[in-house]
Amino acid sequence: MPTTAPTAPALGDVTASDSTLRRFLHGLPGVDAVGLEARAASLGTRSIKTTAKAYAIDLAISMVDLTTLEGADTPGKVRALGAKAVRPDPTDRTSPSTAAVCVYPDMVAVAKEAVAGSSVKVASVATAFPAGRAALPVKLADVRDAVAAGADEIDMVIDRGAFLAGNYMKVHDEIVAVKEASGAARLKVIFETGELSTYDNIRRASWLGMLAGADFIKTSTGKVAVNATPANTLLMLEAVRDFRAQTGIQVGVKPAGGIRTSKDAVKFLVIVNETAGEDWLDNHWFRFGASSLLNDLLMQRQKLATGRYSGPDYVTVD
């Protein structure tokens, strides 16, 4: 299916006004939903065995943003999560660390201390997560608090109401403002794809986020009924591939919510490889937003090493 955006004299001109931005986004090729879902389903049938499977499991572990985003989060829970991120399997030092831990802004300092001295990043949701229903100054204060506490990455939510009303410039300008407030922290822009209704909207949101300076585009918050799916992730991977082809700028992708098993994770990695290419098979460019996925990856990893499954107490319960 065609995915390349219409040629523009310079993509910077696209965001010069609301009308030019709207014209560009609505000029993107329409998504063939049947073809997209068939392609995603076909890639999900690829068989990965033995050493390739072991490699894929370790790669998936290294891509996990180990996440806790609950009202009942405590410093003790976040410390335990940080320790698990640094050393997912205390009995096996060959297991890679996860990419990051993802917490609310008030828990960033605790998480930062827990992962100190390791490669694990601290990501923080912000901008009135998960609904995004707040004034821009409130959202920016949320971001600045997280960055001041030591966040390496910011996961922001877009104003879905503004997007669905066609107020694309408002969404664009908010992302730009959040990017500025994030400073050196990498910015992941969450679309909440389950609320965008159509694949065409997901494609438009992907380009809008990248035009505004997103370092990552992310499917969802994990707080709605429909979160990451192979099809919506495939569509976003096509967008980052095509954006790099036009601009030379590489943007990461983060599916989040609903990815719970090693089998699911491997399917997503196949989609990454076959759609965007090997350049995205690195945790600098691809992440899984998950809380329970890591446990299954560790169980499958141990099964490959020993030939048997461990008991239910082999991994910690998050």
**Helical proportion, percent range:** 40-55%
- Rough shape? globular
The profile of the biggest β sheet is: 8 strands, parallel
Instruction: Please report which band the strand proportion falls in: under 5%, 5-15%, 15-25%, 25-35%, 35-45% or over 45%.
Output: 5-15%
Oligomer: single chain
Q: Find the count of extended strands (DSSP E, 2+ residues).
A: 8
What is the strand arrangement across the widest sheet?
7-6-5-4-3-2-1-8
Low-confidence stretches: 4-9
* Sheet/helix structural class: alpha/beta
> How large is the count of helical segments?
13
Task: Tell me what you see in this structure.
The chain is of the alpha/beta class and 318 residues long. Helices cover 47% and strands 10% of the residues. An eight-stranded parallel sheet has the order 7-6-5-4-3-2-1-8. Strand 6 (216-218), helix 11 (230-247) and strand 7 (252-254) form a beta-alpha-beta unit.
Summarize the structure.
This protein is an alpha/beta fold. It has helices at residues 11-14, 18-26, 33-43, 50-62, 75-86, 108-114, 136-148, 160-164, 168-182, 199-211, 230-247, 262-275, 293-306; strands spanning 64-67, 100-103, 121-126, 153-157, 186-190, 216-218, 252-254, 288-290. The longest helix is centred in the last third of the chain and has 18 residues, at 230-247.
Key traits:
single chain; 318 residues; alpha/beta; 8-stranded parallel sheet; 13 helices; 47% helix; globular
List the helices and strands and how they pair.
Layout: H1 11-14, H2 18-26, H3 33-43, H4 50-62, E1 64-67, H5 75-86, E2 100-103, H6 108-114, E3 121-126, H7 136-148, E4 153-157, H8 160-164, H9 168-182, E5 186-190, H10 199-211, E6 216-218, H11 230-247, E7 252-254, H12 262-275, E8 288-290, H13 293-306
Helix pairs in contact: 3-11, 4-12, 4-13, 5-6, 7-9, 10-11, 11-12
